[in-house]
């Protein structure tokens, strides 16, 4: 099949996985990306001479990557050094309380008991049983399915799975459901935060998103060299199988001949012939005609509201006053105001939750002097409509610094030679048509997850991959979408019988 030419537009995690798997099957693959590095949102910035991960920072669902590596004849441990983290995340509240969740479930139960009392620890144990059951019920019929529908999923679940789903209260919001699990508002708030892993509000996301808590409890790993090392690894493996990479090249349009994909035209004026194209970008770019008018109708699913964006600070700086772990979250007492500001008022929250990834922590190695830090607060995805004013940014910065200081951490978030700030407007420039949305569409309402497009576009020869299509946002999910796109393409060529993502893998699951 070397004569079948594939162009992958976008070198994000999904595009890299598709390119690797298609090349391994003998197809001729070229990857085009306007950036100067692969990885898409999984990017690194050089700050003060250090390479700081400035996109996704949480490596979970290791089994997805074990499966991808196995599909091309290698092993994850042979290609990357990954270390399981003892502490999943460290959580701080402005009242001075702190809670660590651990890879060891018993340590987490003990920590919750010390934090909120034995009764809440018992509730935590029951919550964990529920999240485990919900995840196990949905992994096959939804997460691994190439194109799930409500009817198909209900049929696949069977009576036991349906009972599990009913017990979770899928028609309730995540916030409502968590109120039935925890009476301590801090625990409710902690587990509500998992809705933001999908760029959503816990007041609008369905209760089934509690399964994301199970994803993390199943394991969080650190990748030596940062998350960007995963993207570089996939590129290296793809190149070894003949994939050509064309970086700093913008795709201007997808070309059709007699209604079928025939190539892509670059902004440089060059054209690349293609029998198939995998589009690894936000489907909003197709809808808006950024890849040409002929593919504006390639996606027919209903347009959904945008997910969260963010303001981030990538830093190389000393930290003082507080013992950080790798993943740290600083909470306010009033959580709801943050999501009302972002989703209802379209503005930066006055009192945001602050996430801090201390990228040199968590693996047992001592930290001396400056360290690599990514600091993030949620923001509305309206970077294509209005830029944040200097006053808004100043207020958000001051509020974030004040919250961390109240918890004991001193961090200066002002842009400088040791701090690079990225806003929704910046993310919109990096990822066109998104407004800066980092997770595709928001998962709001029970049916939102079924509103995502699958891998096959409405244009013959065009396939879709990335966080804006099924199974959704996040590094492992986007990687699975890359598998699904490659499988759909190969299936159309009559070269596969089933999707690799639908195959079973060793292990159960894992921002």
Summing up helix and strand content along with how strands pair, one would put the structural category as alpha/beta
Shape: globular
CATH architecture identity of the domain at 5-43 and 225-302 and 447-502: 3-Layer(bba) Sandwich
Q: Helical stretch count?
A: 15
The CA-CA distance between the termini, in Å, is 36 Å
Radius of gyration: 22 Å
Mean pLDDT over the residues: 90
Helix percent band: 25-40%
Portion in beta strands: 15-25%
CATH superfamily of the domain at 5-43 and 225-302 and 447-502: FAD/NAD(P)-binding domain
Q: If strands are numbered along the chain, what order do they take across the biggest sheet?
A: 7-6-15-16-17-14-18
Number of strands: 19
CATH class of the domain at 5-43 and 225-302 and 447-502: Alpha Beta
Largest sheet composition: 7 strands, mixed
Q: Which runs of at least 5 residues are low in confidence (pLDDT < 50)?
A: 497-511
CATH topology of the domain at 5-43 and 225-302 and 447-502: FAD/NAD(P)-binding domain
């Amino acid at each position: 099949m070397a004569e079948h030419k594939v162009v992958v537009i976008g070198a994000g995690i999904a595009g890299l996985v598709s390119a690797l798997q298609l090349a391994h099957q003998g197809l001729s693959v070229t990857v085009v990306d306007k950036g100067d590095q692969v990885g898409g949102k999984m990017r690194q910035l050089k700050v003060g001479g250090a390479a700081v991960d400035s996109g996704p920072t949480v490596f979970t669902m290791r089994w997805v990557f074990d499966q991808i590596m196995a599909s091309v004849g290698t092993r994850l441990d042979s290609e990357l050094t990954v270390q399981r983290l003892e502490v999943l995340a460290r959580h701080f509240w402005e009242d001075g309380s702190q809670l660590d969740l651990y890879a060891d479930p018993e340590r987490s139960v003990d920590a919750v008991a010390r934090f909120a009392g034995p009764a809440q620890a018992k509730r935590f144990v029951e919550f964990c049983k529920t999240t485990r059951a919900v995840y196990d019920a949905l992994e096959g019929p939804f997460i691994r399915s190439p194109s799930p529908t409500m009817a198909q999923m209900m049929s696949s679940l069977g009576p036991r799975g349906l009972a599990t789903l009913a017990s979770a209260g899928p028609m309730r919001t995540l916030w409502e459901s968590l109120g039935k699990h925890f009476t301590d508002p801090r625990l409710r708030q902690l587990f509500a935060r998992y809705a933001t892993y999908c760029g959503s509000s816990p007041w609008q996301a369905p209760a089934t998103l509690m399964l994301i808590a199970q994803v993390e409890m199943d394991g969080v790993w650190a990748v030596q060299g940062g998350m960007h090392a995963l993207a570089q690894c996939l590129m290296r493996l793809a190149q070894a199988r003949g994939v050509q990479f064309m970086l700093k090249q913008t795709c201007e349009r997808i070309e059709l001949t007699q209604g079928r994909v025939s190539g892509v035209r670059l902004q440089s004026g060059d054209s690349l012939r293609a029998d198939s194209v995998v589009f690894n970008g936000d489907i909003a770019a197709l809808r808006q005609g950024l890849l040409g008018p002929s593919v504006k109708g390639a996606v027919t699913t209903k347009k959904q509201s945008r997910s969260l964006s963010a303001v981030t600070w990538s830093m190389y700086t000393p930290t003082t006053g507080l013992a950080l772990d790798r993943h740290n979250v600083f909470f306010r007492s009033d959580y709801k105001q943050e999501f009302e500001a972002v989703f209802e008022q379209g503005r930066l929250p006055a009192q945001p939750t602050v996430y801090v990834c201390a990228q040199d922590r968590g693996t047992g190695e001592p930290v001396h002097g400056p360290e690599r830090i990514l600091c993030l607060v949620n923001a509305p995805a309206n970077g294509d409509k209005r830029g944040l004013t200097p006053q808004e940014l100043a207020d958000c910065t001051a509020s974030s610094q004040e919250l961390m200081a109240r918890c004991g951490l001193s961090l200066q978030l002002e842009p400088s030679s040791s701090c690079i700030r990225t806003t929704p407007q910046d993310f919109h420039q990096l990822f066109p048509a998104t407004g800066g949305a980092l997770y595709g569409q928001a998962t709001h309402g029970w049916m939102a997850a079924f509103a995502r497009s699958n891998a096959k576009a409405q244009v013959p020869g065009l396939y879709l991959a990335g966080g804006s299509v099924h199974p959704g946002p996040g590094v492992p999910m986007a990687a699975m979408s890359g598998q699904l796109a490659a499988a759909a393409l190969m299936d159309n060529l009559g070269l596969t019988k089933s999707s690799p993502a639908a195959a079973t893998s060793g292990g159960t699951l894992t921002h």
